[in-house]
Structure to design on (1018 residues):
């Protein structure tokens, strides 16, 4: 099938005040059969990237290659790729069956009419839309439209699947079912896929690998686990994970085989080998930790296990989510966010003490926002080792 | 795997030979040429001819007389009557058509069932061939067989049948009534469409805010409809001032010049008196007025639509 | 509440409107609305009613004073005179006498059927030209940006305002210059030019709302631009295209000024022909009404279809329905 490569791809558009750089010097490789998710906030260039892969836009600079063949000047219709659009883009004047078969009929594939019908029926069966074949798109529900759009892509057995926020127009429940379904379909068919979304949770669930973009520039291209545990920079760290990461300014000093890290008036020690290439003179850092990693201590005294910082706070707001709750607590230097399961014992206004394991704390250089210490998964004792194959 | 082009059709291959930048102009060329030749050129041509003395009977003989035709218009005995008629025609005709049209549009929106059927019926006066509409009114206003005379007698407004179309002091008014009948439906449809374009929730919000129905109309409906109403107003003016058939069918502009409006005057000068130069000068007058209306139309249009 | 009112809902009765909240006001309002509805309805509908009943009266009843509101005896006399005079003017009376044994002697010979045929020819021609030229242009005007685009759009909008009476004299000169006087081709071209801007505006409105992702999907489905236009855009635009055609058709069908000034009697289309008919038969209004109804049939059929697009078409897309 197809190995997809982008080499130093740049895309500029004419804007009212000069050029707008939508994608800036982007290089990516996706191996045959892999599922790549392009993730980023709106306007980050992810959709433009997808459209360049599909041939709907031409790169200003750089190359797009399929299996090493440069396809920059190959038109969309000759690339043999299929795309699922956010608004489904079903042809309103054709029945579901005609929609599914349209691409096959256009193709020079030597398929007879009845062979096409057969393939359409097969795919319709697979997606459980067999009984909708004679209906027009306008009479379908959102979920059904989504399946037809998927079917239209699948039936052609293309070299590449492209998905442009395919779930954005569905309700929350459907979004969850469909994303599992898309994931399964893609694994079963083994067709290389690129999938655009701004939803980090969706990306984490569905992706083999994630490319995070911001302002047209690639921030990180990695497995979901590595994106989560060792984000390249503060942007990536803040973009993935929910609720938002706790961020504080801090300082760092070398003390023999370990570093002493200070923030919000607390200090703790981290072994030197958990850090990666720390520059000589770094002292100003940004400290981050995820709400899930923050937990409550019964009291400041008598704690055991790790040597993490201990933070006293006053609970402000508790947002119950069912089994757990998001708790916002106030300290002098700002607000702490944490997710707690045993939230029934506490009340708004109570004093609470939180702590966090030093392995779970992220440290970034403050000037460059570059990561110098990631989150170590305690079970494996190695950064990202759980997921990295 | 090869990626050769699959331009299947000969059309496409032909189009592909045209440079990219020129293709758009190629696409707009036919319309532009057609409009240019049959609408824009005649406008220029009329301005040119207005400076010549030229007869319809000998169109190849013409003498340059400068502003002579314009001077003749100024000094002509009928022009004052024609101007008065035209102003009455446009102001009274448009004014009443707008009021009736607005009320009709409101009724269609608010009170009448089966909106689409009802509005189709309301539109009939507008789409009927102009000659048909005009002849209905001619018949209704006719002296002895006219239903309107009968009505007026029954109501005691007049003692005996009046030949309105033949009375110089009355002859313009039946045509104005006919024109209102034809234009009001158009304004009604514009109004209906504007009403339909307003989000129902705004009215609900206004009710919650304590507005009476009248206040909701005054402070929500009207402001939201103002551009649409302006468009409708300008269309009324434009359709009215350029109308020819209503007057021509009903009275031919007579008796004398008593019901002659500017377009009818142009026709009479050119095709009855055979004076093309004079008629062209009159046409130029009409252009100026239409140009002003069109200018405002485009301005309002820009407001509504933003960029084209 | 401090006052001695016993009504506990009193405090909800502030901000009262007499017209809407009192019984008398409500009655007054309902009466007024009823009267206005009746008046407006009568004004719009009565002439149409009068046209229909007049067509079904006998000539004798037409000449009665005072006029009858409902025909005393419904008659097809008016229609039969129209048909007969058409047959006579068309020179078919011998044929009818021989085959059907019907003798036709009409006082006036105006061939209404020929008028209808001429008008059909002109209107269909103009409609096709306007739709073909207008659609191609509107597609480009909607999807591309190019130098002179706004000027062109304004020009088309302005040209909607001008046709007809304002340019009848120079148009006559132009048509003579092109040696097209007294030909239907002249009218086809002029009506085409008058309605093409309508089509441009109407179709541009359609293409502006056309979802770009559908075009992208077609490209992905291996369509060339021509195939995209042929298999996706045109079928989706079908309704708008038909509406555009009908708009152009109706304008051509109804237009009087150019037909009157650019054609001789023999080539007349419906409007000038009907005008002659009105003048020839204006003591027999039943005949005129019958002819009017016959020539209005295509218009009413067309109206049913384009109603949805009416406002958008008339205003050049300024107001969307």
């Amino acid at each position: 099938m197809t190995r997809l490569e982008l080499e130093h791809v740049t895309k500029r558009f004419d804007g009212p005040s000069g050029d707008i750089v939508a994608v800036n010097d982007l290089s990516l490789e996706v191996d045959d059969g892999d599922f790549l998710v392009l993730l980023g906030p709106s306007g980050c260039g992810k959709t433009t990237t997808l459209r360049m892969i599909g041939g709907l836009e031409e790169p200003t600079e750089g190359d797009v290659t399929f299996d090493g063949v440069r396809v920059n000047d190959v038109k969309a219709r000759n690339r043999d790729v299929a795309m699922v659009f956010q608004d489904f883009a079903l042809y309103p004047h054709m029945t579901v069956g005609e929609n599914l078969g349209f691409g096959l009929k256009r193709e020079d594939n030597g398929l007879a009419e009845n062979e096409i019908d057969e393939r359409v029926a097969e795919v319709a069966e697979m997606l459980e839309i067999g009984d909708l074949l004679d209906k027009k798109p306008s009479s379908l529900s959102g979920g059904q439209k989504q399946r037809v759009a998927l079917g239209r892509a699948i039936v052609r057995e293309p070299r590449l699947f492209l998905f442009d926020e395919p779930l954005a127009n569905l309700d929350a429940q459907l979004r969850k079912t469909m994303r599992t379904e898309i994931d399964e379909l893609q694994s079963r068919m083994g067709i290389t896929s690129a999938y655009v979304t701004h939803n980090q949770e969706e990306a984490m669930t569905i992706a083999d690998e994630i490319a995070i973009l911001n302002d047209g520039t690639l921030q990180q291209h990695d497995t979901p686990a590595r994106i989560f545990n060792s984000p390249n920079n503060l942007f990536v760290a803040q973009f993935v994970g929910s609720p938002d990461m706790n961020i504080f300014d801090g300082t760092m000093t070398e003390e023999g085989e370990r570093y002493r890290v200070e923030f919000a008036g607390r200090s703790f020690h981290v072994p030197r080998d958990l850090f990666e290439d720390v520059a000589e003179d770094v002292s100003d850092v940004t400290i981050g930790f995820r709400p899930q990693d923050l937990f409550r201590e019964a009291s400041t005294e008598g704690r055991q296990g790790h040597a993490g910082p201990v933070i006293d706070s006053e609970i402000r707001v508790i947002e119950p989510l069912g089994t757990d709750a998001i708790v916002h607590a106030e300290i002098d230097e700002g607000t702490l966010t944490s997710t707690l399961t045993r939230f029934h014992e506490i009340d708004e206004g109570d004093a609470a003490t939180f702590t966090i394991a030093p392995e779970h704390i992220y440290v970034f250089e403050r000037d460059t926002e570059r990561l110098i210490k990631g989150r170590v998964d305690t079970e494996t004792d190695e950064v990202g080792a759980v997921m990295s194959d | 795997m090869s990626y050769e082009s699959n331009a299947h059709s000969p059309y496409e291959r032909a189009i592909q030979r045209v440079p990219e930048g020129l293709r758009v102009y190629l696409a707009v060329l036919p319309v532009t040429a057609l409009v240019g030749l049959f609408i824009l050129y005649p406008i220029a041509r009329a301005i040119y001819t207005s400076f010549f003395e030229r007869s319809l009977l000998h169109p190849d003989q013409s003498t340059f007389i400068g502003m002579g035709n314009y001077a003749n218009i100024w000094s002509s005995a009928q022009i004052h009557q024609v101007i008065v008629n035209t102003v009455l025609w446009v102001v009274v005709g448009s004014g009443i058509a707008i009021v009736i049209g607005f009320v009709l549009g409101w009724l269609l929106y608010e009170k009448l069932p089966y909106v689409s059927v009802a509005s189709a019926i309301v539109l009939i006066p507008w789409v009927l061939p102009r000659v048909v509409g005009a002849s209905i009114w001619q018949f209704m206003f006719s002296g002895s067989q006219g239903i309107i005379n009968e009505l007026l007698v029954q109501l005691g407004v007049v003692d005996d049948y009046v030949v309105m179309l033949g009375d110089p002091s009355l002859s313009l008014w039946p045509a104005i009534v006919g024109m209102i009948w034809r234009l009001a439906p158009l304004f009604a449809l514009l109004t209906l469409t504007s009403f339909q374009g307003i989000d129902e929730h705004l009215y609900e919000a206004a009710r919650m805010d304590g507005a009476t129905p009248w206040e909701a109309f005054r402070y929500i409906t009207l402001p939201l409809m103002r551009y649409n109403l302006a468009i409708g107003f300008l269309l009324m003016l434009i359709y009215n001032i350029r109308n020819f058939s209503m007057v021509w069918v009903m009275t031919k502009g007579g008796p004398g010049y008593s019901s002659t409006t500017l377009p009818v005057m142009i026709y009479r000068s050119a095709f009855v008196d055979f004076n093309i130069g004079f008629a062209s000068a009159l046409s130029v007058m009409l252009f100026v007025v239409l140009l002003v209306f069109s200018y405002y139309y485009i301005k309002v249009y820009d407001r509504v639509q933003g960029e084209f | 509440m401090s006052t001695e009112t016993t009504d506990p809902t009193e405090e909800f009765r502030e901000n009262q409107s007499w017209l809407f909240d009192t019984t008398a006001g409500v009655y007054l309002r309902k009466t007024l609305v009823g009267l206005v509805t009746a008046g407006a309805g009568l004004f719009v509908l009565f002439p149409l009613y009068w046209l229909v009943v007049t067509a079904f009266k006998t000539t004798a009843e037409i000449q009665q004073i005072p006029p009858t509101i409902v025909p005393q005896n419904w008659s097809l006399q008016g229609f039969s005179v129209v048909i007969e005079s058409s047959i006579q003017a068309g020179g078919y009376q011998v044929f009818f006498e021989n085959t059907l044994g019907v003798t036709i002697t009409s006082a006036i010979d105006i061939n209404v059927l020929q008028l209808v045929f001429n008008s059909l020819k002109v209107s269909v021609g103009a409609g096709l030209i306007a739709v073909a030229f207008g659609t191609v242009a509107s597609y480009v005007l909607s999807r591309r940006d190019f130098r002179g685009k706004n000027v062109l759009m304004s020009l088309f909008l302005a040209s909607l305002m001008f046709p007809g009476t304002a340019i009848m004299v120079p148009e006559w000169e132009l048509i003579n210059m092109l040696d097209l006087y007294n030909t239907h081709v002249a009218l086809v071209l002029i009506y085409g030019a008058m309605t093409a801007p309508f089509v441009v505006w109407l179709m541009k409105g359609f293409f502006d709302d056309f979802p770009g992702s559908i075009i992208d999907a077609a490209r992905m489905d291996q369509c060339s631009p021509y195939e995209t236009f042929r298999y996706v855009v045109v079928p989706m635009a079908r309704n708008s295209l038909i509406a555009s055609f009908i708009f152009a058709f109706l304008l051509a069908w109804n237009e009087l000024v150019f037909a009157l000034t650019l054609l001789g009697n023999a080539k007349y289309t419906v409007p000038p022909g009907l005008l002659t008919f009105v003048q020839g038969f204006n003591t027999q209004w039943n005949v005129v009404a019958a002819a009017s109804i016959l020539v209005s049939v295509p218009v009413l059929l067309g109206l049913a279809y384009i109603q949805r697009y009416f406002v958008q078409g008339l205003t050049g897309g300024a107001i969307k329905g």
